[in-house]
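A further point concerns the way the authors explain their paired sequence and structure data. Nothing conveys this as quickly as seeing an actual entry. An entry of this sort, consisting of the sequence and the corresponding backbone structure tokens, reads as follows:
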Amino acid sequence: MFRGGSVKDEQGEPAYGGTNWRRFAVAVGVPTLVAGGIVLGIANGALAATFSVSGQSFKISADKLEGDGFAQYGGKLHPEKGSDIPVALSGINKAKLTNLCQSVKTPGLPISLTIRAGREDGKPAEASELLIGLTELSGDANFKNINIGQSAATLTKGGPDAHDGTEAGKNGFGQEADSVVITNLRQIGYSATAATFNLKGLSLKLNVDTQTGKPPECF
């Protein structure tokens, strides 16, 4: 569990990752962006079960996320440089995302990378065994058969990697549900992994804005 402290995104805005996990019940949409984070992992060629994160945040949005099997618990990411980043680790066993967007800014430059997929009717982006580390999430969420306060070491519904198997995790706060639906997703994350990720209608674009210094992002 992590208490106090805050994490800042690339724009300097606070991303309150230092949450009291015993009160952290519905920051859930997390998994949603998991998928988005995966896109970034693929772009960087660094998609793996465990890896040193860059420490730079990215944004993800989607009109709708439909997840089969969900789990969440508190954890931390290990950047190559700097202090550990406290996050909410969220997993979805199988996910569908409609109108998925992911964006990441280049530090110190008026450049952003945007990735979009799943925009055509009936052809959402699909992922399996998603696991994402995030610090902020908003949207409208609906869970089916949710358990809140379950031991983080006993989570099973969010995929094989969506649980805390450490000694400390045996007493950690966790939650899981049979399914989750999140609409109007907005999320800031630092990492994501997946067993498979199918980006239908993939579009990747490098955006440069030298006039305002604010290239487009997902939100």
Q: What stands out?
A: The two ends are 29 Å apart (CA to CA).
